[in-house]
């Protein structure tokens, strides 16, 4: 099937005129029609996808040759596409129509990519399982009774089932890498600032980063190179100058002191087997210490809710989005936000407002900011002695839908992913095999973290993990 091709394979066939963008897009649409009713990966499939593909074929016939020209991609529902709904999987923005393109969309549009539709996610990207979507959870393609991961679960499920050749997601604490691990695809969280956040519905502005979900490391590199770069619309964006590496020269640090509890034994077994394979290919494996990494979850779950509370204050029923009338202005706010926001979003807003409030700011938020700075220094120091830091992406495979009704148990699963967002380092999740659960083979991933701007190291090692 054409939709089972990687982007690099499809681009080669398009360049040789062995296939057309219309045929490639049609194959993805057929797969969506077959699988999406069960998996709920897409919230909307764009009716003009084939027209976009026809335009791409015309552009290629006229001599254009970008590798993404005519490649069908999926887009997470919190990234703006002009004239399309962008609900962030929330009732608050259920009928909101974007008035402009996000910078990443503009860059992909200029390259000629075909946008298939908007994918399911946790509401306002708040969650690690996609169970917090106002429109029902995206389901894991390897076992539909399990979560796809979050918050970019719809994008990961779409790529894993060949309903798209690649996809955009966003990553605030692991929201690209988590579903990549659970669904068995590649997930890239770039260096903070490497990709413009203009047009991304904000959750935690110092943590958010648009990322890539793809079938291979080569494909993620191709999309990253297309969407990265400085953008005057995002003051935090910058050009990234990547270092050059070869696989035989990598020194990989492993913080095994973080593996003491909460990790499934067979996940750790797959992780050690993957490291052994990399060692045989010429990599050096060394134990390292990251003393503050054990505090990362506590730090993250103070800073992220604080920023989310501030960012979501704009959704008040007055300016845009859902608007419910009450007896007075305060009643308008209460009715709108109570009906428009789901339970997890309300939980994080309240937590964030609490840690920013008078009397608690110094006790919680200020200390978390200081601990974050210390963690970043520890990563910088560690990456002076090693080229990459490796951990499992997630401590377990995907859990059953409803299996972590206690939110704290779900938060603990982010132990290995939140650090890259707190420090701003780039990180990638690569499939490292499967583990068995109840007769199902479930994917698990290995995560590599690199120094700021060293995405090239992630792509090189990612191509070597089999």
Automatic annotation (TrEMBL):
<keyword id="KW-0648">Protein biosynthesis</keyword>
<comment type="subunit">
    <text>Heterotrimer of A, B and C subunits.</text>
</comment>
<dbReference type="GO" id="GO:0030956">
    <property type="term" value="C:glutamyl-tRNA(Gln) amidotransferase complex"/>
</dbReference>
<dbReference type="GO" id="GO:0005524">
    <property type="term" value="F:ATP binding"/>
</dbReference>
<dbReference type="InterPro" id="IPR023631">
    <property type="entry name" value="Amidase_dom"/>
</dbReference>
<dbReference type="GO" id="GO:0050567">
    <property type="term" value="F:glutaminyl-tRNA synthase (glutamine-hydrolyzing) activity"/>
</dbReference>
<dbReference type="InterPro" id="IPR036928">
    <property type="entry name" value="AS_sf"/>
</dbReference>
<dbReference type="GO" id="GO:0016740">
    <property type="term" value="F:transferase activity"/>
</dbReference>
<keyword id="KW-0436">Ligase</keyword>
<dbReference type="InterPro" id="IPR000120">
    <property type="entry name" value="Amidase"/>
</dbReference>
<feature type="active site" description="Charge relay system">
    <location>
        <position position="151"/>
    </location>
</feature>
<feature type="domain" description="Amidase">
    <location>
        <begin position="23"/>
        <end position="458"/>
    </location>
</feature>
<dbReference type="InterPro" id="IPR020556">
    <property type="entry name" value="Amidase_CS"/>
</dbReference>
<keyword id="KW-0547">Nucleotide-binding</keyword>
<protein>
    <recommendedName>
        <fullName>Glutamyl-tRNA(Gln) amidotransferase subunit A</fullName>
        <ecNumber>6.3.5.7</ecNumber>
    </recommendedName>
</protein>
<dbReference type="Pfam" id="PF01425">
    <property type="entry name" value="Amidase"/>
</dbReference>
<dbReference type="InterPro" id="IPR004412">
    <property type="entry name" value="GatA"/>
</dbReference>
<dbReference type="GO" id="GO:0006412">
    <property type="term" value="P:translation"/>
</dbReference>
<comment type="function">
    <text>Allows the formation of correctly charged Gln-tRNA(Gln) through the transamidation of misacylated Glu-tRNA(Gln) in organisms which lack glutaminyl-tRNA synthetase. The reaction takes place in the presence of glutamine and ATP through an activated gamma-phospho-Glu-tRNA(Gln).</text>
</comment>
<keyword id="KW-0067">ATP-binding</keyword>
<feature type="active site" description="Charge relay system">
    <location>
        <position position="76"/>
    </location>
</feature>
<feature type="active site" description="Acyl-ester intermediate">
    <location>
        <position position="175"/>
    </location>
</feature>
<comment type="similarity">
    <text>Belongs to the amidase family. GatA subfamily.</text>
</comment>
<keyword id="KW-0808">Transferase</keyword>
